[in-house]
Structure formats: structure tokens, C-alpha cells
Write a structure and sequence with these properties.
about 325 residues, 13 helices, globular
Amino acid sequence: MLKLLMVGAGGIGSYYAARLLESGHRVVLTARGAHLDALVSNGLKVHYGGRELIHRPEAFSHQQLVARFHPDDFDVIVIALKSTATESVVDELGAWLRQGRVPVLSLQNGVDNEPLLAEAIGAERIIGGLAVRIGGHIVRPGVVEAEGVAEIVMGEWPAARKPGSARSLLLEKLAAAFDGSGIPTTLSDNVRYELWRKLVINNGVNPLSALTGLDTRSLTHRPEFSRIVYGMMAETVEASRADDVNLTKEDLHEMFELISSFNAIKTSMLIDREKGRPLELDSIAGAVLKRCANLGIDAPYTSTIALSLIHISEPTRPY
């Protein structure tokens, strides 16, 4: 059995933690505020696929975590926070993480989390990852709703090393544990490519859904919006060249067909806007716009939607 630390017990982190706990793995969670209080007092309840997954995991604040544990008490540390919190978690836990050698797996949106973590604790400890086809959010403190296939794709960062290395063996062990817990898991030799393919989808639908209030199916099946979705996805494909990932039109078409086949899902950015939480706009649209600027190319769809969203949600923000 594995011992995991799940940094961030939001919708995604709580769902994966519940599945792993159900299989007998030990999972320690971090959270804050009323959600942390509820986890400590009443445990975790996850609604998924008509089931209730109920557990009493160990849950702590970051301050309590640092006081009670050494990083190497865990087999792997999973970061499941919003990408807006990556810098702050590095500030809060960076010194503690540097005390150990435990690998750190990022399951976050965007393509800039792994570089930030690598700069803080060393690239050799980073496992790139992404959660695919999953929606999840906290409905009230201690209670989470999740939906979707909820796959994980992960791989060595920034690229696979020799087969049979300690890191590749750990990845195989993790994949087997996740699969055995009902979490479909794929190992990738090029996880940066997979992260960029997910960013194609995220940039295509997340900002536009937050702006319009529409779900993914409405956006991809109504012609007046599907053209914008496709345009933002195409700009993301172009932006990938700045990182030498070089996605193709085939990737674009495949990702557009994939998101078009989804059920009607409210994106995480739409839920965040409804709940008044910070939006992952900089790590999604911002990542695309920054790289397009570096390449000297325009991204009119992404810039227009991003600026419109900033204007209505953060009217005092300079842009």
C-alpha cells in the first residue's frame, strides 16, 4: 500500500483521495478554512456516479503538515490545487519540500506548474501529470461532487529517461495503484505534449464558458460559439511552438472532436466565477497569450475573450 499526501482537497483532489482510500492506501489531505474543519470533524463525503464514498482521512493545514511530517514520510506528494495557488504553495511548503527527496506529482491545469515546482525543488523530483475528463467541486464543507471518467495521465518531467530507472519504476507502481483503485491511468513518455493537448481544450472552453455561463456541450454544438472555441483551440496549437512542443492540425481536430463528444459539463472556471473565486485565466489563456507574443503572432480569439472576462469579473484589474 502507498502513503500519499494530497495537497489540495478540492473537488479533484478529494475524488482521487477517496478512491485511493477505498483501496486501502493511506492518504493525508491538506485543506483550509471551513472545509478543513469539516474534514476533521465529519470526514469526507464524495458523490460520484450514484455512489457515496465516505472516509475519515487525516487532514491538516499546511502549518500543521510541516509540524507533524517529514516529506519523505510519503511515497509521493500530489499537488491538486488550482494553478492560481502554485506560487503560494511553493512559498509555504518549498523549504519543507526541500528537506526530502520524495517525488512530487502535479495534477493541475496549465503548462507552467511543473516548471515552477522544478525550479523550487529540482526537476529530477517532478512528475508531470493531468486529470482528464473529470469535473469536481466542493458543494459544501466536507462534501464533494465529481463526475466523468476521471483518468490520469502522468510521466517523468520534462521527458522520460531510461526504462528501468528508479523514477520509471515508481511511475509503474503509482499507475498500478491508481488503476487498482478505479482510476484509469496512462503513463506517457512525453507528458509535456499531453499537458499542451489538455491546454488546447481548456483554453477552448474554460474562458468562454466563464464569460457566457454556458456548458461545454452548448459551446461546441452551437455554431456561433463553436467557431470561437475552435479559434481559441487553434491559437493554443500555435502557441505550443514556443515550448518546442509543436502540436499539429491533427491534434487540433482530435481535441475539438473530443470536447464536442463530452456531456454537458460546467467548466471549473465557470464554477469558480459563480462562487466568486479567483479564475485560472492567467494559467490558461495567459499562457497562450504570453507564448503567442513571444512568437510574434496574434491570438485575437483568446485575447478578446480573456479581456472581456477580465472586464466583467475584475473591473479594477489593469489590462
